[in-house]
Amino acid sequence: MLGGPRLATSFARVSKDRNRIVHFLRSLLRKPSLNQFVLVAALALLAPCAAQAEARLVIEADSGKVLEAENATVPWYPASVTKMMTAYVTLKAIKDGKITLDTLVTVSPVAASQSPSKMGFRPGTQVTVDNALKMMLVKSANDMAVVLAEGVGGSIDGFSVMMNQTAQKLGMTQTSYVNPNGLPADGQITSARDLAILARAIIKDLPEYEYFVHIPSIRFGRRVTQNFNKLIGRYPGADGFKTGFICASGYNLVASATRDGRRLIAVVLGSSSGTMRAVRAAQLLDRGFASNGLGWLKPSLGTVDQLVPLDASPPNLRDEMCGGKHKRPASDEDDAVTASTAGESASTSGSSVTFFAAGLQPPLAKPSDLMAAAPAPSEPIAVYTGPTRSGAALIAAVAADADSQTTRHGKKPRGGAKKLAATAEPKDAKSDVKGDAKPDAKTAAKPPAVHHANAASKPADKPAATDPSAAKPAKPKAGSKAAAKPKGAPGEAKPAPKSTAG
Questions:
Q1: I need a labelling partner for 46 at 20 to 30 A (CA). Which of 53, 232, 352, 435 fits?
Q2: What average pLDDT does this structure show over 380-385?
Q3: pTM for the whole structure
């Protein structure tokens, strides 16, 4: 049993239809000849509901109208969706003129000691706020979240105060932050309701910076990282937000999509895998878009801020997610687990409504099929260390980072960073980047022409070629002693790679 007695109240709520079924089955129990049939039927109908431990919510971004809600106000461990608030506070500081996207922030020993997923930079390395945001939101880099927190708030504790003040201002009454990256810590709590409120705030308050939450992929040196949000590049109209995973929370996802000028926000907390959370979010969005002209069929659920918070302890899914023989990745990427056919059953009614609401058009592809497909081709956004650069200087910076990665793996680069940069130099000021470099070096040294993330909104003509070494994360050298580790969530006193936010 997950959660124990403390979740008895939060998960005891059942629909009226289920209650009718239960009463009907009880009446049949009076007939001994039907006992066996009744027991089998009862288990088939009620077991899935008992096993379910997810929170789901879908709302309209503009109005905040709730289209569907299930356990939306049950407290939950946020994991890396915490980084949405880290991004919001940082971008608000930029908008208020306190810092800029070009401001340099430094990797401290505390930042370097964070658990994966992370960039793995050595203490003393400098990056711009712009690049740190991209690394944090696409790769879900825990070290970059701390770098931003220290750069904006002076320390993790100082930045956490800013996060909590912002949460209260936005009406996120169920949320409490202890760190900027979502690694396990006592008191780090949120809910699907509060995360939907935060997503709306990003859309409404920071439209000029919203591109940060829908970058398809980034390239650091030779390494290309796809966005962990599987809806990006797969689900029609998907345009944000963030994923998260620790053992205690399960797989979390805040996602948004726009169709015909109507934008929806979906929140899924506690899914069993990275693929399943994407499938669940796609199902919610499908049903939400299908209900556009059929809202009168359902009773009004009000707006997201009107949802009544539930006073309960968050479920701890550690045993279900990481106990026994379960092996979880260091981040929340989960390509090994695919959506089951049972996952599709939840969207059956939504698909039927879509069929009729779309004027008898064929239904859309199943969410599981969409998530299993490769993402649409896109040019990775180049990220790099050091100050803001452009043109030849940017090419040289990307080549230097690629050289550094090769050196860390114990392989001597051919010609080094200088050769990589030289082969990518333009022949003259008016010409495109040309040279006689070999394909691998040329690919590694070819970043997008724009140094800020708004290049993500421009589709690439050709998919980027990736070097085989791109799949291997860089191994940071041990050079600093780990600082104080964050306190673990209940049952997670020692955060290990198996329970790492991502």
A1: 352
A2: 96
A3: 0.71
